[in-house]
Amino acid sequence: MINHLITQKNWQTQLSEAITSVDELLAHLDLSAHRADVYVPQHFKLRVPHGFVAKMRVGDINDPLLKQVLPDTQEQIAVTGYVSDPLSENTQNPIKGLLHKYQSRVLMPITGACAIHCRYCFRQHFDYNANMPTVQVGDEIVDYIRAHADVNEVILSGGDPLSISNRRLFAWLDVLEGLPQIDTIRLHTRLPVVIPERLDEALLARLQASRCQIVMVIHCNHANELDAHTASYLQRAHAAGITLLNQAVLLAGINDSLEAQVNLSKKLFSKNVLPYYLHILDKVAGAAHFDIEESAAIKLYWEVLAALPGYLVPKLVKELPNKPFKVPVDIYTDPIS
Ligand SMILES: *Cc1c(COP(=O)(O)O)cnc(C)c1O
Ligand code: SF4
């Protein structure tokens, strides 16, 4: 019944009614007894919409979806090597609101807002106010892209690019489609699994009508995020001609097992989504407890390679500040020997 009510609400309402209190979240899951006096950083509070909570197991403090959003005292422990800007992004934007790190594609963080706050997020300390493109800098972005003729793809990112209104999003699409050199527009978004209703009819119709190829890279870390309700919206996106890919982050205690990875890839594929990237955690301050040893990641990856057809195996990558691509993890040394 509760699920039914949630699906009646439009995405904006669900966004505005997201849970922001640890006590409330734990109460929803019958976990009030576990109530820890966690310190929640002011710059990155708890935030999770009800629909995502509905996919968590009641009574399980180790639920893989809960662990992604529940603040943990371990976030407060400073760990050497884990810094606030692990990718040096604050220094890699040629103009405000544009990251041009790799050839042929640029990334625009069009909003700092997210529907959900993922505790492992590498952008949790990012200075969005200093880096957000506004309509005023739209002209500068257009000039920059025009001056770089090899750029043929624009990635809308954030924050979450689907957390802004259709009106604002469509305005950016209009601008980008007006550039003949751009043939692909990509959205990196977690909203399809957090509030699937965000893939509303107007959005899908607008994307379907685009003269550009539309790629949507969803961000799903665990098979439990993909329930039937979520799948129905992914199906609509697929039917609208959108190429659906997934990126996940390898997270200790959440998806760092063979079973979790196999289930995720298979479930994604059954919903018309292909696994794209499996990221080694970016070494961001506050997230060290989610990280796993690279040797352990490689060992797991060999198991995944053995268990799945090649098209269901995401690329295992890490991001390094000054490399011209996301760096494939060196898996060639047999971790078993
Ligand atoms: C991840 C990323 C991209 C996209 O990289 P792909 O390998 O094409 O998926 C582009 N620009 C920036 C700044 C990125 O972080
Ligand atoms: S949705 Fe993406 S950008 Fe937003 S907090 Fe989660 S991982 Fe970070």
CATH architecture of the largest domain: Alpha-Beta Barrel
CATH first level of the largest domain: which class? Alpha Beta
Strand count: 9
Kindly state the percentage of residues in helix: 25-40%
Q: How many domains make up the coordinates?
A: 2
List the helices and strands and how they pair.
Blueprint (H helix, E strand, L loop, with lengths): L1 H7 L2 H6 L5 H7 L21 H4 L12 H4 L29 E4 L2 E5 L18 H4 L3 H13 L5 E5 L8 H12 L6 E6 L1 H4 L6 H8 L4 E7 L8 H12 L3 E7 L8 H13 L3 E6 L14 H14 L7 E4 L8 E2 L9
Iron/sulfur cluster binds next to loops.
Please give a structural write-up.
Strands 1-2-3-4-5-6-7-8-9 form a nine-stranded mixed sheet. The protein has helices at residues 2-8, 11-16, 22-28, 50-53, 66-69, 128-131, 135-147, 166-177, 191-194, 201-208, 228-239, 258-270, 294-307, and strands at residues 99-102, 105-109, 153-157, 184-189, 213-219, 243-249, 274-279, 315-318, 327-328. It is 32% helix and 14% strand. The protein is globular and about 55 Å long. The chain is α/β, with parallel strands linked by helices. A hairpin with an 8-residue loop joins strand 8 and strand 9 (327-328). The protein has two domains: 4-76, no CATH class; 89-328, Aldolase class I (TIM Barrel), CATH 3.20.20. It contains 13 helices and nine strands. Bound molecules: pyridoxal-5'-phosphate and iron/sulfur cluster. Residues 114, 116-118, 121, 123, 158-160, 190, 219 line the site of iron/sulfur cluster (SF4).
